[in-house]
Give the backbone structure.
Amino acid sequence: MDLPGLDASKLVTELAPAPKPKPANDQSLVFGKHFSDHILQVDWDHERGWGAPRIEPFGDLTLSPAAMALHYALQCFEGMKAYKDAQGRVRLFRPDLNLERLNASMRRLYLPQLEASQALALIKALVKVDAGWVPEKDGYSLYLRPTAIAMDPYLGLQIVNHCKFYVFTCPVGPYYPSGFKPIKLLADSKNVRAWPGGCGNSKLGGNYGPTVAPQMAAHDEGCAQVLWLYPTRDKDGEEDHLVTEVGAMNVFFVLKNKQGQTELVTAPLTDGTILPGVTRRCVLELARQQAQSRGWQVSERPLGMNEVMAAHGEGRVLEAFGCGTAAVIAPVSCVRFKGGDLDLPTGGAVGPVAKFMWDAITDIQYGRVPDHPWSVLVD
Ligand code: PLP
């Protein structure tokens, strides 16, 4: 039997009686702490399919203490942003890719699928209702958190019969309020974030909780983020560690290869250890567009710390940067590995490739590139 799919035409909107005061667009706007006035919610049931979507005043959820989401991490989420352009119009950035990834995460948990065009229509409706919450300043945006959770009150691991999809939003400021601050990374050869055949390529809450303790250990060593590694052997059979991701971002190293060409390297998406980042994809697509004119080689290939250290010793590591929705581009100044510091030649400055990517991506996000297909108007 075909159950009713997600249907944006059934949307019911109940507006908040009075809007909350909005935070100022300054350094007091802490990421993820201020929530706008409304939330979108849709419930799914294995016998009735998707119900009528609701936009309601933002508030707490009611769920059983036995809800499967709370015990077996049957939950997944997305992170995306809405931007206000110079004409005051609100724009989403490549929302189709977030919805595709959310559906992939939901499949990984055996949750129901969302019809992407309907989910996008509902997200647009939510952002329109709270358009006044999209900050008008460059570097500021409205962060959106689409989430799916298992609601079943059941202390046993089984398929989900009751699921809730909801989206709420938070105005956020620039990740680096005082401009780019290149970060130091702790390359962690002990804790592994994800592994081949695992679920690191899905955005499951269960992937993130266990990263807090290693992140605190990195802080204790004066490092801002963990560079996640995966143990392997190099081509000579020596112990090696593959570079996978940094914190909750994908990572690029810019090397001068043995032929003297600038090579942008990031880990491939082939074995399930890497989250397919929207920003990663943008960096790769922009780099490939520029490859010929700038003489860049663009590689999605395994990169081991042995190669990074050898290239660093020969002065061939030019720069490195993380990339993700929250920070867009996060330049790296230093990588600490096995007690030694690999200082990058860019030091406290932003490397030219990181700068190019920052400019190109933010110009599209804020609608400064006319009619770019990655920037989707909400109206
Ligand atoms: N890697 C991980 C583990 C993440 O959580 C994120 C953020 O969502 C990313 C990479 C970057 O992905 P995106 O560019 O889609 O934000």
